[in-house]
Amino acid sequence: MSDVPNRPKVVLTHWVHNEVIQLLSETCTVVANTTREALSRDEICRRSRDADGLMVFMPDSIDKTFLDSCPQLKVIAGALRGYDNFDVESCSDRQIWFTIVPDLLAAPTAELTIGLLIGLARRLLEGDALIRHGKFPGWRPILYGKGLTNKTLGVVGMGKLGRSLAERLQGFQMHLLYADPVPLSAELEKMWQIEAAPLAELLESSDYVVLMVPLQPDTFHLINRERIACMKPGSILINPCRGSVVDEKAVADALASGHLAGYAADVFEMEDWTRCDRPSSIEPRLLQNQNQTFFTPHLGSAVEEIRFEIAMEAAMNLLQALRGDIPRGAVNQINK
């Protein structure tokens, strides 16, 4: 869209639905990414040099250098929930709002988590490969997996993601544990038939461990060699939250030794841009291990209608900030 005087310029780094662009175009000059491909950092910087607003997504990363190249920015709206890849403190220093969409990702992420859990425990990928390679055994089962009934599942982290998972696990007839510094109310524990436990006890007791924590200094490599050694032999680890919550090399070693029976993930250490030592790829041994692992390409919120709602809410945050209001999804404070 061509520039119109006195209209704020908004840059969208990734593809969004046309309805989102139309909403923003009513009052803004919109520079949209109309492709399904990610823009390079240099291209985003070029488009954003004179921008007033920016909508960002999980593959993006914003740091001081980027902000210094975009002096007119007033708001960065994340179409996301976890924002560890973005320097929010530097945004605050420059009087730039940073907003997120906190409430729409929990349900689809919990659904995917259950899919990862069942897919790995019941060896669904192996079964699919067996059929495709013409080795269908007929009625005779040959891939024996782990069931869920009467097993213990531990949830590490009981924020929105953990709660959404616990709610959806009802009916699986599992013994549920959780570890979190802030306990659930007695009413929720009773409703979801879930018990609080120290992390060490949860790891020792659980057949399945699901990680639902944000990436922070105290959760970096929360699951490391020492904690994996404390896990129940033959247990399965599921990571749908952040890659660097897990030490992938330690997981690969535990799978090779047989201490862990499986590892499923929707996130990987290589994605965490704020780490100066982040690896350039997924631990190769995990990728080579096709019988004990199950990986998805960050599908947690990849549901058509959910992505639409997320982008629309991010757009509303942009518009609120550009009007001079405090945006609903702000995670920082600025002095304006």
TrEMBL record:
<dbReference type="InterPro" id="IPR006140">
    <property type="entry name" value="D-isomer_DH_NAD-bd"/>
</dbReference>
<protein>
    <submittedName>
        <fullName>Lactate dehydrogenase</fullName>
        <ecNumber>1.1.1.215</ecNumber>
    </submittedName>
</protein>
<dbReference type="GO" id="GO:0008465">
    <property type="term" value="F:hydroxypyruvate reductase (NADH) activity"/>
</dbReference>
<dbReference type="InterPro" id="IPR006139">
    <property type="entry name" value="D-isomer_2_OHA_DH_cat_dom"/>
</dbReference>
<dbReference type="InterPro" id="IPR036291">
    <property type="entry name" value="NAD(P)-bd_dom_sf"/>
</dbReference>
<dbReference type="GO" id="GO:0008873">
    <property type="term" value="F:gluconate 2-dehydrogenase activity"/>
</dbReference>
<feature type="domain" description="D-isomer specific 2-hydroxyacid dehydrogenase NAD-binding">
    <location>
        <begin position="114"/>
        <end position="300"/>
    </location>
</feature>
<dbReference type="InterPro" id="IPR029753">
    <property type="entry name" value="D-isomer_DH_CS"/>
</dbReference>
<dbReference type="GO" id="GO:0005829">
    <property type="term" value="C:cytosol"/>
</dbReference>
<dbReference type="Pfam" id="PF02826">
    <property type="entry name" value="2-Hacid_dh_C"/>
</dbReference>
<dbReference type="GO" id="GO:0051287">
    <property type="term" value="F:NAD binding"/>
</dbReference>
<dbReference type="Pfam" id="PF00389">
    <property type="entry name" value="2-Hacid_dh"/>
</dbReference>
<dbReference type="InterPro" id="IPR050223">
    <property type="entry name" value="D-isomer_2-hydroxyacid_DH"/>
</dbReference>
<dbReference type="GO" id="GO:0030267">
    <property type="term" value="F:glyoxylate reductase (NADPH) activity"/>
</dbReference>
<feature type="domain" description="D-isomer specific 2-hydroxyacid dehydrogenase catalytic">
    <location>
        <begin position="10"/>
        <end position="332"/>
    </location>
</feature>
<comment type="similarity">
    <text>Belongs to the D-isomer specific 2-hydroxyacid dehydrogenase family.</text>
</comment>
<keyword id="KW-0560">Oxidoreductase</keyword>
